[in-house]
Specification:
Distance between the termini: 27 Å
Number of domains: 3
Radius of gyration: 30 Å
Structural class: alpha+beta
Low-confidence stretches: 1-17, 184-196, 453-463, 478-484
Mean pLDDT: 83
Number of strands: 11
Largest sheet: 7 strands, mixed
Order of helices and strands: HEEEHEEEEHHHHHHHHEEEEHHHHH
Helix content: 40-55%
Oligomer: single chain
Number of helices: 15
Length: about 475
């Protein structure tokens, strides 16, 4: 599916190289204390470990204790303990929060890795990129086919319909990218659900192309043709789209656009791409980049001059910005893997749920650059730990754990001091006998103010407090322990 979307929009951008930084983070939560171990290394073309950037290593090291760094070969490991908040190491912000009462405790781990939450700016940048790419196409067709009778028709299509469709696809691409950053696909190894929301958005993008005549469902199987025939297949699809949708009859236009990948000779770039790049060199955008390069190069010694800007970057970069997130490239030049273990039982997470309860939750994926503007990676896990001794003493068994314990703790910590004192005094009188259980349904705070759990029906003065209802439910049946 990702390849289909990429090819349909002519995504000519290339992966950002094979060298990448790798960040492997292992976290254990104990109360509100974060035990954190971070492994750093860099991989090359054949996954061979290379020297990790020393400047970044020095920056990350400052976030850990002085004696927290160990180096073995080209792998660096940092370790430290942090209370409440995560350190500024990889980039982002996070916390570990513990909520406690006598029945048990809930701990919530939440961390953002790099990226930006400025959604409005990110979306606007994609829309502007769609405009820039469309303007380049309009300028190129006018330059390439100045005398064609179909030029007005083609320009109108590009300026109105394609421009708007690219903007809509840009927003869909942003959704794919954002959903992928907020969730993680569980895969075959975990017991958790497989999060496929980003895939659903990709399917919606494909349907969008179907409905607007860029593709037909029958075109999809062609994506599996061998690479040497892929250009021919894509050319056929583009030619039919221009003829059927835009009603282009000029053979010169059809031949030029549908043969954009046809080679211009041994070792030469495709003819149509060369034509497009030659046109780009005449544009103010490229001339501005070229002038900036010349000014910078004039101040640098021989051998250290910056690389001359490429004409293809002027149109590839905005197209890449439109489709960013729909292509499986390691766009940040880095990989991130996070594992987290909390105290008690896992209740909910957006990570991969382990097969065994004593194993950590795992998140993995590409990581944005430190100054990147894409939606951040987000890791979230909530654990609940029952105080077995207290519960058995008053109820004869553990009656609250998992979801029920989470709900109880959230209810208990929000009570006022007076209500908390009344409730604790009442619980102190309970024992594992029928008489105590019968009193639960009659409990109500002395000031008769209704108290219920969030999401339940409005309380009345005679209704038991939320904690009493949860305890009664725990006594009547099995507590909820399944993580989600």
């Amino acid at each position: 599916m990702k390849r289909i979307i990429t090819l349909m929009m002519l995504a000519m951008t290339a992966a950002s190289g094979c060298d990448k930084n790798v960040y492997e983070l292992s976290i254990t939560g104990r109360g509100d204390v974060i035990e954190r171990k971070l492994r750093l290394y860099r991989t090359g073309d054949k996954d061979e470990k290379q020297q990790f950037p020393q400047e970044e290593l020095a920056r990350i090291r400052r976030a850990y204790p002085e004696d927290g760094l160990k180096t073995e070969g080209k792998v660096h490991t940092l370790a430290g303990r942090f209370k409440g908040k995560t350190p500024q190491d990889i980039g982002g912000a996070g916390s570990l929060t513990e909520l406690k009462c006598r029945m048990g405790a809930v701990s919530v781990y939440l961390e953002r890795f790099r990226g930006s939450d400025d959604v409005a700016t990110g979306v606007q940048a994609r829309l502007k990129a769609a405009d820039r790419f469309t303007d380049i196409l309009i300028g190129w067709v006018a330059h390439e086919f100045p005398k064609s009778k179909d030029l007005p028709k083609l320009r109108t299509f590009l300026d109105r319909e394609l421009r708007q469709d690219l903007k809509n696809l840009a927003i869909y691409a942003w959704l794919v990218d954002s959903v992928g950053r907020l969730t993680v696909q569980a895969g075959k190894e975990g017991r958790g659900r497989v999060v496929s929301d980003d895939h659903s958005v990709r399917v919606r993008m494909l349907q969008y192309l179907f409905e607007r005549g860029y593709l037909k469902p029958a075109d999809v199987p062609g994506i599996t043709v061998p690479d040497e025939r892929l250009a021919e297949w894509l050319g056929d699809v583009l030619g039919r789209m221009l003829a059927d949708k835009v009603k282009i009859a000029d053979k010169a236009i059809l031949e030029k656009i549908t043969s954009f990948t046809a080679k211009g000779g041994e070792g030469k770039e495709p003819k149509t791409l060369k034509s497009l790049n030659d046109y780009v060199k005449t544009t103010p955008a490229y001339k501005k980049e070229l002038a900036a390069w010349r000014a910078a190069a004039a101040t640098q010694p021989v051998g250290k001059k910056p690389e001359q800007p490429k004409a293809e970057d002027v149109w590839q970069k905005p197209l890449g910005a439109v489709l960013e997130g729909t292509i499986d490239f390691s766009w940040g030049g880095a990989d991130l893997k996070v594992s987290y273990s909390g105290e008690g039982s896992l209740v909910e997470t957006n990570g991969q749920v382990p097969k065994k309860a004593d194993k950590p939750v795992v998140w993995a994926g590409a990581l944005d650059s430190p100054d990147g503007t894409r939606m951040p990676r987000l890791c979230y896990a909530l654990y609940a730990k029952a105080e077995a001794g207290f519960q058995k003493r008053h109820f004869g068994k553990v009656i609250l754990e998992g979801d029920d314990l989470r709900d109880y703790v959230f209810w208990r910590v929000k009570l006022s001091k007076d209500h908390a004192r009344q409730w604790d005094q009442f619980v102190d009188t309970l024992r594992p006998d029928a008489a105590s259980y019968g009193r639960l349904k009659d409990f109500c705070f002395r000031d008769r103010k209704p108290t219920t759990m969030p999401g339940t029906a409005p309380a009345v003065a005679t209704r038991p407090a939320g904690g009493a209802s949860l305890i009664g439910r725990g006594l009547a049946g099995s507590p909820t322990t399944r993580p989600r």
